[in-house]
């Protein structure tokens, strides 16, 4: 039945290429989209016949380029995927919806490689239904098109959303795992079997890893998987109760991932490796969660981050949540076995600061409210079936060739940074914690143009002999080594956080400034755009995730001066991922605490003291109304050492303990952290 529907849809779309039954204004859009579908049909035949496997590397590259060429930056402003171009050619309202439709159909690239004929059929039938509307004597009303898209989203979220949940839980959903474990990784042609865009970054990464000795690959895999294991040990969680680990990574690192899979298997864990979502029904804004290849055009991803605004309403949210609940309930045994994500990030790409386009879909205030409600309820539901107090994670980052001509040298340096021994850091960080535990609050001041002047209130210790405020983080879940952190007391935490340049979730911010009152964001701005309105909107959408405010969920002091000096040495400060950057100075996270969903689990430092600062006055509301406790975001913002004037602990008796001054550690017992700063050429 489905095969018959697919064949009928493909046959009908094939005729559209030659037809002249729609108005001339809209004809190029439908014909171009139909040709794209035709290209996917040819690809499907090549995959099913096996001849795709026989193509040369050059032939594979040519096919990969054809699939993505119209959204590449050099072609994007003449592509219907660009809402601005679509609006110009088709009118704003038609342009928004038809640009969305084309973008959704582009998800068929992945479905073709995964042989998902049902998904292909649904998308192609949607395209035909919209096309039929334009064949009518009178042009369709915008409401008619919007209704068609709404019912596509409502009807088929039962398939797309439910399947996505199963993919996230079931190791037998092994499309990516099979490629990794069963391919010859010495032949980079395997990269083109995933159905992702492959750039020089992925190719050169795979080629460079081929050259590394087995012991180096094993070392990279070991630090990654051992960090994951330690996450369970350090929080007293029983890993033996779990059987599945979720591996998230960027293509090119398969040699490391393959070793990691073997390591995890020794822990009793099978991998689940799912693709980052390509459908508006399952993805979250422009964020990529899962495995993925290169981003062909970050502006394209950003332009379509709010496409759900075309159909988002309360009825759809309720429908999606019900589908989600049913899928979890049917697969609750699988869900109970998931130990959590092991994430491998990359960095080094050119920092991206997006253009704000009026023609793109934007959420209304009501839709933003509904999106927040969905995040809250879906988060609660996930925690019900995959309890936070039973799961952990780890995360590590590696550079890509785009970072510069010294890529291989930088890569080797990052291996060293990611595998730094914890013993020295543990001792020095404990010295910092001993001083911090004496404080009522901490004052952080910027210098040389950095406008930071922020006072962070600390939890009160009732039993300093057995309790502590800060966690001594020595490279378990959060690699590399090098930070002490706490959940601040919100009341009394006030002032301004400012950083001249920072890269957060693949977006660059210039002169990011956030003002706190009693631990909550009171105001914010940046200088990315000429209009202040655009700057505030940018921060609100991508840092606050459209919440009216967020708490200061974390205050930390990074101690990895080795990483800082390496970044300065190679001139890559603005390309460092927050994972490493947060270890290169004090950082502040807005959103949930580091202990979200696990606040009741006792956590201990290596010296045996319990970390009691796990909650704040927002998160504690979970005991009465969990919807008020969590925001489902946690964004770290780091002040680099060169912009740091001082960090001072203010004690109960009015005393002061200076930890850092002019970007250097001055607390006795921590001076060893200055050695990389004093001898940068040895790093």
Automatic annotation (TrEMBL):
The EC number(s) this enzyme carries: 3.4.11.-
Any Pfam family the entry gives: Peptidase_M29
Keywords linked to the UniProt accession: Aminopeptidase, Hydrolase, Metal-binding, Protease
Signal peptide: none
Keyword DNA repair: no
GO terms, molecular function: aminopeptidase activity
SUPFAM superfamilies: Thermophilic metalloprotease-like
InterPro entries: M29_Exopeptidase, Peptidase_M29
DNA-binding as UniProt keyword: no
Tree of life domain: Bacteria
Name of the featured protein: Aminopeptidase
């Amino acid at each position: 039945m489905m095969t018959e529907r697919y064949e009928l849809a493909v046959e009908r779309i094939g005729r559209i290429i030659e037809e002249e039954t729609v108005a001339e204004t809209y004809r190029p859009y439908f014909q171009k989209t139909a040709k794209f579908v035709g290209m996917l049909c040819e690809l499907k035949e090549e995959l099913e016949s096996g001849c795709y496997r026989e193509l040369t590397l050059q032939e594979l590259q040519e096919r990969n380029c054809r699939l993505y060429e119209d959204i590449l930056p050099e072609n994007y402003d003449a592509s219907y995927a660009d809402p601005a171009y679509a609006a110009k050619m088709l009118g704003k309202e038609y342009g928004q919806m038809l640009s969305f439709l084309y973008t959704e159909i582009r998800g068929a690239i992945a479905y073709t490689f995964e042989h998902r004929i049902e998904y292909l059929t649904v998308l192609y039938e949607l395209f035909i239904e919209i096309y039929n509307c334009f064949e009518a004597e009178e042009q369709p009303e915008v409401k008619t098109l919007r209704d068609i898209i709404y019912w596509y989203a409502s009807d088929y979220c039962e398939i797309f959303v439910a399947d996505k949940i199963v993919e996230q839980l079931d190791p037998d959903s092994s499309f990516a795992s099979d490629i990794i474990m069963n391919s010859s990784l010495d032949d980079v042609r395997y990269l083109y079997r995933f159905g992702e865009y492959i750039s020089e970054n992925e190719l050169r990464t795979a080629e460079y890893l081929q050259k590394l000795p087995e012991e180096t690959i094993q070392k990279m895999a070991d630090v990654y998987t051992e960090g994951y294991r330690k996450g369970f040990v350090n929080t007293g969680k029983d890993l033996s109760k779990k059987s599945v680990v979720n591996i998230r990574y960027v293509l090119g690192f398969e040699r490391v991932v393959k070793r990691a899979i073997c390591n995890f298997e020794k822990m009793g864990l099978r991998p689940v490796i799912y693709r980052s979502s390509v459908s508006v029904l399952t993805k979250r804004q422009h964020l990529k969660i899962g495995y993925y290849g290169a981003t062909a055009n970050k502006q394209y991803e950003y332009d379509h981050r709010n496409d759900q605004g075309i159909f988002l309403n309360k009825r759809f949210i309720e429908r999606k949540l019900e589908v989600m609940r049913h899928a979890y309930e049917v697969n609750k045994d699988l869900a109970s076995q998931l130990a959590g994500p092991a994430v491998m990030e990359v960095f080094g790409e050119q920092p991206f600061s997006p253009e704000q386009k009026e023609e793109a879909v934007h959420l209304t205030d009501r839709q933003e409210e509904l999106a927040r409600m969905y995040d809250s309820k879906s988060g609660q539901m996930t925690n019900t079936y995959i309890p936070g107090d039973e799961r952990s994670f780890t995360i590590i980052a590696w550079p890509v060739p785009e970072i510069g001509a010294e890529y291989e040298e930088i890569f080797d340096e990052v291996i060293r940074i990611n595998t730094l021994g914890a013993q020295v850091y543990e001792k020095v960080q404990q010295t910092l914690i001993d001083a911090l535990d004496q404080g009522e609050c901490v004052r952080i001041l910027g210098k040389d143009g950095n406008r930071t002047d922020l006072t962070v209130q600390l939890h009160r210790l009732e039993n300093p002999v057995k309790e502590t405020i800060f966690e001594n983080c020595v490279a378990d879940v959060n690699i590399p080594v090098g930070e002490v952190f706490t959940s601040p007391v919100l009341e009394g935490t006030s002032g301004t956080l400012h950083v001249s340049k920072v890269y957060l979730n693949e977006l660059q911010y210039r002169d990011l400034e956030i003002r706190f009152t009693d631990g909550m964001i009171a105001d914010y701005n940046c200088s990315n755009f000429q209009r202040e309105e655009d700057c505030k909107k940018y921060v609100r959408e991508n840092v606050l995730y459209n919440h009216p405010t967020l708490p200061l969920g974390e205050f930390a002091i990074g101690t990895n001066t080795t990483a800082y000096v390496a970044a300065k040495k190679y001139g890559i400060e603005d390309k460092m991922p927050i994972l490493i950057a947060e270890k290169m100075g004090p950082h502040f996270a807005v959103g949930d605490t580091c202990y979200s969903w696990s606040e009741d689990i006792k956590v201990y430092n290596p010296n045996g003291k319990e970390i009691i600062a796990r909650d704040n006055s927002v998160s504690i509301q979970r005991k009465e109304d969990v919807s008020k406790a969590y925001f489902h975001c946690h964004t770290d913002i780091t002040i680099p050492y060169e912009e740091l004037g001082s960090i001072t602990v203010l004690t109960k008796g009015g005393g002061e303990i200076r930890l850092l001054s002019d970007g250097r550690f001055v607390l006795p017992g921590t001076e060893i952290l200055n050695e990389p700063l004093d001898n940068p050429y040895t790093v």
